[in-house]
Design brief:
The protein is mostly helical. Helices cover about 75% and strands about 0% of the residues.
Length: about 80
């Protein structure tokens, strides 16, 4: 198993967040509504989706559960896209 360098992990994290953001747009879910569902603050979500803060695994799970999507599927898609 190869280990990621810090910068690679940051890029990976940003791509995961971007895919989640795309799912939000597809489902027409605003940050305000997502904040209500996840009980995360709207500013926290804004920082995450503008790549000013990187979310914890716990936060990603809360967000993907609220959107009824699989975090594992999102991660697998990012891995597949990065291998190309």
């Amino acid at each position: 198993m190869a280990f990621m360098k810090i910068r690679e992990a940051q890029i990976f994290s940003d791509k995961v967040v971007d895919l989640i953001g795309e799912e939000m747009k597809k489902r027409r879910i605003s940050r305000y509504l997502l904040a209500q569902i996840t009980q995360l603050s709207e500013p926290s979500l804004s920082f995450i989706f503008h790549h000013q803060r990187r979310p914890t695994l716990y936060t990603l799970i809360r967000i993907t559960n609220a959107l009824n999507i699989s975090l594992a599927d999102i991660i697998a898609k990012v891995e597949k896209d990065l291998i190309k």
